[in-house]
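Deliverable D2.4 — example input (structure tokens):
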């Protein structure tokens, strides 16, 4: 059996899940439990949306002396009360699940009746999705397809189907449209972990970390609310690669929102009020609002009649408001006011000059440049009909103190798109290479833009002392 990487022990930052070393941890996904559909002609319509549950699976692989897979346990974690908690255990490849285990004393009662039922129902949505989720994580870990049947019961019981045919299910929140557009087979799906300089890990200096993530679109809200749901947080998803570099100079951010001057004169306000009352209260509302406008005109000591007469005369003649200005030397008060018009997206620019001290370090720099260039490139679908979004990035300033976590004295950065990658191959203004042709110096410039604006309530969701936490 070929060797495979099981990864390292991982802790879910949002809460209580501590995985043992050697865990194969799947990416986070969401499934609607309790969803009900019915056929209406040629369409399948969702009648009950169900409850959206975020889940991830942890697989512990047991191996024979020759390195082949002999079996393994899987532990299912779900998000509950803001943390990921163990909810179910399967020791037979997902055929059956139990919801109490002495190794996980906090498991009792985490999984509700609906989740328990669907986990132990082969046709249940979350049962199928977990098999697909684990199938992908085993592929990423390098488990051969011929041995995955020891870990996924649905493969063992359906030998006439391939792994992909059996474990791929539609997890779209819309019953009419599937958002699962497969990318080209040549699309790179893993980018490795890189660091410059090579001995950076031996130092105690703070660093900046770029974690590449698969782009996750937002779901439509289908529970009586308008708009879109929230995108899964970067810390709840497994990165597909990372780069760690020294923090460069010139670090800054700029938070801004858009305000603009807007006009609404008295006549426009009156007409808007009539329209609003008509929508909200029908004919009765339209009558009351119209009467209020007429009463205001009558009580205006002739000013209302003068304004109204000039406005209609200007509209009829195509001269606009200039008739009033020419005949009275006045204009209708526009009630100019500065009004909020929307948030802005922040941009970040980083420039790194990387001098190689040896050929091996130069090759590592090349891998880092390739990491950013290929990771920010659009992805083609298998049919070439679609172009899928490039991968996105989480950017963190890490303090190399006792906790090794984000530096609270630096601004946080939301999930970003890498909009441009600039490379200077001769930053010293001369062409110089090692014996193998690798350049001795490179300079890269990265321009990022956040996917979402920063909102007021984002600050309250951060961990730490609010008095010493800059936030975003």
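Example output (designed residues):
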């Amino acid at each position: 059996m070929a060797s495979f990487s099981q990864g390292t022990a991982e802790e879910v930052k949002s809460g209580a899940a501590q995985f043992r070393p050697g865990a194969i941890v799947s990416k986070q996904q969401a499934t609607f439990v309790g969803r009900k559909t019915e056929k209406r002609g040629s369409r399948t319509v969702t009648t009950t949306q169900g409850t959206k549950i975020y889940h991830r699976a942890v697989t512990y692989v047991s191996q024979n002396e020759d390195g082949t897979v002999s079996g393994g346990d899987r532990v299912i974690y779900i998000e509950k009360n803001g943390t990921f908690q163990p909810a179910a255990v399967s020791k037979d490849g997902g055929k059956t699940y139990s919801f109490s285990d002495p190794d996980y004393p906090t498991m009792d009662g985490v999984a509700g009746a609906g989740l328990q039922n669907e986990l132990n129902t082969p046709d249940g949505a979350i049962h199928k999705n977990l098999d697909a989720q684990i199938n992908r994580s085993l592929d990423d870990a390098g488990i051969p397809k011929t041995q995955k049947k020891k870990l996924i019961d649905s493969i063992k019981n359906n030998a006439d189907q391939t792994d992909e045919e059996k474990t791929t299910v539609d997890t779209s929140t819309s019953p009419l449209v599937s958002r699962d557009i497969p990318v080209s087979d040549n699309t790179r799906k893993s980018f490795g972990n890189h660091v410059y300089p090579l001995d950076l890990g031996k130092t105690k200096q703070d660093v900046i970390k770029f974690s590449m993530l698969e782009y996750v679109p937002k779901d439509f809200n289908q529970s009586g609310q308008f708009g879109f749901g929230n995108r899964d947080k970067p810390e709840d998803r497994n990165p597909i690669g990372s780069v760690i570099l020294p923090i460069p100079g010139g670090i800054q951010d700029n938070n801004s929102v858009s305000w603009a001057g807007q006009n609404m004169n008295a006549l426009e306000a009156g007409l808007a009020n009539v329209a609003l009352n008509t929508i909200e209260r029908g004919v009765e509302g339209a009558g009351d609002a119209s009467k209020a406008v007429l009463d205001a005109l009558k009580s205006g000591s002739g000013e209302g009649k003068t304004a109204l007469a000039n406005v209609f005369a200007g509209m009829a003649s195509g001269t606009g408001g200039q008739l009033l200005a020419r005949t009275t030397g006045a204009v209708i008060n526009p009630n100019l006011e500065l009004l909020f018009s929307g948030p802005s997206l922040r941009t970040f620019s980083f420039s790194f000059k990387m001098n190689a001290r040896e050929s091996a370090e130069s090759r590592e720099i090349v891998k880092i440049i390739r990491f950013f260039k290929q990771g920010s490139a659009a992805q083609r679908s298998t049919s070439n009909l679609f172009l899928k979004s490039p991968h996105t990035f989480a950017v963190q300033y890490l303090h190399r103190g006792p906790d090794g976590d984000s530096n609270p004295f630096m601004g946080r950065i939301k999930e970003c798109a890498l909009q441009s990658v600039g490379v200077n191959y001769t930053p010293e203004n001369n062409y110089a290479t090692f014996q193998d042709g690798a350049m001795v110096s490179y300079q890269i410039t990265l321009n990022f833009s956040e996917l979402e604006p920063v909102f007021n309530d984002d600050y309250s969701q951060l961990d730490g002392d609010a008095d010493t936490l800059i936030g975003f």
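The CA atoms of residues 149 and 157 lie 9 Å apart.
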